[in-house]
Amino acid sequence: MTIKELSKEFGIAERNCRYRFFTLMKNQKLVEGEDYKKEDYKDETHFTWRINPLSFGQKANLQPIPYPPVTKPVTNEAEVDTNGNQDYSEVVELFKVLYEDKKKEVERLLTDADKHREAMEKERDEVHALTGALIQKQNRVEELLLLTSGGVVTNPVTEVDTKENGGSENDNQTATTDAEIVDEVSNKPNNL
What is the reported pLDDT for 165? Predict the structure, then answer.
């Protein structure tokens, strides 16, 4: 028998069977020719181990799995209809019950899915509302910073660009008076 067949015969994993075989072979408890042999030999890495299951089982302390006894199915001759007109009403009733159970389960799952979808939509709306409020607060903070900046508004991007290119800090800056800032702020609708 091969190692795979032995593993099925003794009810152990194939790798455990292989490990036990090589351990017994290493400890010289199995004799080549009597207990095992190499079959379909091509070279040292391409061949099949054929192992004697009796000697392997004895030396590895393994017992084969007992096969269940073969029994004939018990049938009542009176219940078997030889004309092909068998009564399937019990089977049909069973399928109806199973169908109804599955139908209820699907309805429950759909209801749960609807509840989850509604909850997600509610959370999405809350996130949108909070994001809008955050943007309004940010705009208000920017307006207040402009009012308290002393009337001079600088463009930080332009300021960095001119510094990196060797220009002065005052290049490309826009100067705005307090009156222009107040006019700009008063023209915007107050969102807060």
Answer: 52
